[in-house]
From TrEMBL:
GO cellular component: cytoplasm; ribonuclease H2 complex
Main EC class the enzyme belongs to: hydrolase
Organism from which the protein derives: Sphingobium wenxiniae (strain DSM 21828 / CGMCC 1.7748 / JZ-1)
Annotated GO biological process: DNA replication, removal of RNA primer; mismatch repair
Encoding gene, per UniProt annotation: rnhB
Protein name (database record): Ribonuclease HII
Residue ranges of every copy of the RNase H type-2 domain listed in the record: 13-199
Catalytic reaction list: Endonucleolytic cleavage to 5'-phosphomonoester
EC number(s) from the headed UniProt entry: 3.1.26.4
Record family assignment: Belongs to the RNase HII family.
Length: 199
């Protein structure tokens, strides 16, 4: 289970955790979250968002937003993903999440193996969402925010099943893509969508 040891290594000063959701889907934005937790008031049960049920994530999202010192959400659009590529769009979303924080910090812990080019000292932590409480909290906020965006998009484009597959390339989604073609929410630089555009 994640703990606060990585954060404590970088004290004194506030430490933020950053994570993203939505690098792999064929549709929708990539979303990042940044969270500065209070060491003395962390919600119980924080973990990698993928290890939690939807109901548990929803509960923890409310607790994180209520108890964290501050939190921020950043997104990169489908157009930015297609023009920059998904890696650099993810870095942009992370930077925007940090800029959305109401307080500055002394250090940032980033899930993964590289950090964005930004003004904050930062450390990349591989599988950080399963190791660092701050990154775990960010992973939950990012996933919940992106899932809501895809449910809203599903209401506009009901054929693709985004309310359940969240834009990933499920059999239902791929079959609907072949039948109905791509929408403005689809990432045209991703192979399954790009191949259909060539037909």
């Amino acid at each position: 289970m994640p703990d606060f040891s990585h954060e404590l290594r970088h004290h004194p000063g506030l430490v933020a955790g950053v994570d993203e959701a939505g690098r792999g889907p064929l549709a929708g934005p990539v979303v990042a979250a940044a969270v500065i937790l209070r060491a003395e008031d962390c919600p119980d049960g924080l973990n990698d968002s993928k290890q939690l049920t939807a109901a548990r994530r929803a509960t923890l999202e409310v607790e994180i937003k209520a108890r964290a010192l501050c939190w921020g959400i950043g997104t990169a659009s489908v157009e930015e993903i297609d023009s920059l590529n998904i890696l650099w769009a993810t870095m942009l979303a992370m930077k925007r999440a940090m800029e959305a924080l109401s307080q500055d910090c002394a250090h940032v812990l980033v899930d993964g193996n590289r950090c964005p080019d930004w003004r904050w000292p930062a450390t990349a932590v591989v599988e950080g969402d399963a190791k660092c409480l701050s990154i775990s909290a960010a992973s939950i906020l990012a996933k919940e925010a992106r899932d809501r965006m895809m449910v809203e998009a599903a209401a506009l484009h009901p054929h693709y099943g985004w309310e359940s597959n969240k834009g990933y390339g499920s059999p239902h989604h791929l079959a609907a893509l072949r039948q109905h073609g791509p929408t403005a929410f689809h990432r045209r630089s991703f192979a399954p969508v790009a191949q259909l555009l060539l037909l």
